[in-house]
Amino acid sequence: MMQTPLLIGPMMEHAEQFFARKEVISQTHDKLRRLTYAEIGQRTRRLMSALSQLGVQKGDRVGTLAWNHHRHLEIYFAAPGMGAVLHTINIRLTPEHIIYIINHAEDQILFIDEDILPLIEKVQDKLQTVKAFVVMTDKDELPESNLAPLHSYETLLQTGDPEQPFKTDIDENDPAGMCYTSATTGKPKGVVYSHRGIVLHSYTLGLADTAAISESDVSMPVVPQFHVNAWGTPFACTWFGSTQVMPGPRFTPKRLAQFIERFKVTITAGVPTIWLGVLRELEQGEYDTSSLRAVLCGGSAAPRGLIQAFEQKLGVPFAHAYGATETTPLVTYSRLKSYQQDLSAEGKLDERAKQGALVPGLEMKVIGDDGEVAWNGEEMGELLLRGPWIASEYYEDDRSSSAFHDGWFHTGDVVTVDVEGNIQIIDRTKDLIKSGGEWISSVEIENAFMAHEAVFEASVVAMPDAEWQERPVACVVLHEGYHTEKDELLEFIRPQFAKWWMPDDVLFFDEIPKTSVGKFLKRELRERVKEHYKV
Ligand code: AMP
Hints:
By secondary structure, the protein is an alpha/beta fold. The strands form five sheets. It has a nine-stranded mixed beta sheet with strand order 2-1-11-10-12-13-14-15-16, with helices on both faces. It has a seven-stranded mixed beta sheet with strand order 7-6-5-3-4-8-9, sandwiched between helices. Strands 17, 18, 19, 20, 21 and 22 form a six-stranded antiparallel beta sheet that branches. Helix 1 packs across helix 3 (70-81) and helix 7 (195-205) crosses helix 9 (233-240).
């Protein structure tokens, strides 16, 4: 067979050739735009050419701080299409972490949505490698800003050659993209995606037994393009010629519901918190959602009740999937097998609320205290993964060896596997709390509490939450002879954290359960907290 490389540029070329009149419908700050793949392809080529003129070279990192819209999609193809590396930056991280990752990735250029400019203006003098900023706006004039040099995206595009070819002398193993994920403590960790990994992952999104993305789909990724490439959907949908609906900045459940009806969305993807909001909207309003064939839900466990409400009340098929930044991300997809169709409604729901079975192309192992666990739905162990779209290290980070060793990625997720091979996530070894799809470090909150003179020990655990899936609750032991109140402790730590990081409650305990080596036994503590709340 021929050894032709698996590259991202040709995916856009394919859309230009075979799906030229299919559309991307994009909500920006000011407008709703409709562009064909012929136009998107030409704009992508102009962007590659303009980036070259700005001095961007093979291997350089191109950062984005942006919502889901067509311009972001164009950078998704222009950066790797010219051999550079797309670095999507999570705008919800703290300014300190944003500075760190831009410097660590050595971004040469930053593409920024107009409403996100203030975030970067405040930290500009700390950015060590950025040579130019590009604002993505619909307005003709540049916004007032102290960023320099500052270009306007549309003006920049005008300077580019609409026939600029996609670069072909790229190795399929070369970096195409990167994304940082939160660590338990300290700075975020970078994951680099290769062209090959992204292309193979895109095929997987098209498989009939996963998301089955195809030309006939109208796809609306709600998961941000700064979260693992919107789960790879922009790449797959462009390649397969699906219509794409990009919901733009600061969308609301109402906008999502309206878009589903108006554009006859067939497949959409997001974290459970999004779907809880949309569910409320759909229940209150009169919307026609009959076009939907799949609502993909991942990033946190999809609550059984959410699946049930979407399917039984609204008749909207709901699909639960699992993955991580390190895995590009699709790893498992929950789907009933042909011979499970006669299960009771409850039985089907039980199965589908699991994270599902491994997609073809990957390998998994689940390691418990005594080696690999039996696939009996009972024994628990850590999920290990390997395959062509699983990272092999963190980018220039000496913390890599704790997660990547013996040829496997150690996910930190504790799972059971049933006889059908479906995994169910039971716990996680990493000390992080996932609230509404974003990570909160329990360790950092614990350290903040422990700086208070009255606090002897503090442990922060995740409690189940109907809206956010998990919320932090602090468990505190006071020094003997000291007294303090919940509110005083919360005020003490408040200046250090974003509002959504603040624990929902502080509970006082006489002691915190510990392992034989003195580590907090979080699972036991969580049970005690649940008992306290009677949940
Ligand atoms: P991230 O790297 O931010 O995408 O987070 C990945 C982590 O989110 C995984 O290691 C899991 O702990 C968690 N996660 C992702 N999808 C699911 C899911 N469907 N159910 C439960 N946890 C999930």
